[in-house]
Design brief:
It is built from ten helices and ten strands. By secondary structure, the protein is of the alpha/beta class. Helix 7 links the parallel strand 7 and strand 8.
Length: 237
């Protein structure tokens, strides 16, 4: 069942076309990845879904409801959240304060339940609940950004470059958590320049080039595609 439906989405910045009428589906309980070079329109896609970028044309359906033009707050209330590129934690607030911001729409009981779940996934965040977020390592900040999004009890979590700037061992941990979140029933839409790990993780993948979707299919199938391997994995097979 399709939980998120993107239909003929077009976004322009001035005279520049960022998205050129793209369409794709995110099925419930799946991990879906968008891969492509810088400037392909991946981040614009996520920001458009969240209501942060105005659409030139097209339609976005979430759980059967058209969400074009909705306030971002309402979209979050419906269970759709974004982990932004660059983590965007509040550096002068503690780890716990950052998490509580993510749960601001929850009542106290649900907020506490969500916090316990986040601490179960990320024990280091509990250990460092007192520490200012700006002094955390890059990996811990990324975990905090994901944990903050989970505080909203989402049905769908969108992640923009979660491995950016992180060491390989930390990337492995992050993707292990992404799989675990998905196994718990949360649908994941993932943007990732590390196409190898993204396609190994995703049930479905879409390839974006200059605002267009040029290929799509099961993640493992795309991983074996000679052209995709040459363009995004630095080698062909």
């Amino acid at each position: 069942m399709s939980l998120l439906e993107i239909r003929d989405l077009k976004v322009c910045y001035g005279g520049i076309v960022a998205l050129n009428g793209i369409s794709f589906d995110v099925n419930e309980s799946e991990i879906v990845t968008l891969i492509g070079a810088n400037g392909a329109g991946k981040s614009t896609t996520l920001r458009s879904i969240m209501g942060l970028v105005p659409l030139t044309s097209g339609t976005i359906f979430y759980d059967g409801v058209k969400i074009n033009g909705m306030e971002t707050r309402k979209i979050v209330e419906m269970g759709l959240v974004l982990v932004p590129e660059g983590r965007r934690v509040f550096p002068n607030l503690t780890t716990l304060e950052n998490l509580k911001i993510g749960g601001y729409l929850q009542d106290s009981k649900n907020e506490q339940k969500a916090l316990e779940h986040v601490y179960e996934l990320f024990p280091r965040l509990q250990e460092r609940h007192w520490q200012l977020a700006g002094t955390l390592s890059g990996g811990d900040q990324q975990m905090l950004a994901v944990g903050r999004a989970l505080m909203a009890n989402p049905k769908v979590i969108m992640m923009d470059e979660p491995s950016l700037g992180l060491a390989p061992l930390v990337v492995k941990d992050i993707f292990s958590i992404i799989r675990k979140i998905n196994e718990e029933g949360v649908t994941v839409l993932l943007i990732e320049q590390n196409a190898n790990v993204a396609l190994k993780t995703a049930h479905q993948g879409y390839v974006m080039e200059t605002g267009n979707i040029t290929n799509h299919g099961p993640g493992r199938e795309l991983l074996e595609n000679v052209d995709i391997r040459s363009a995004y994995l630095g080698k062909s097979k």
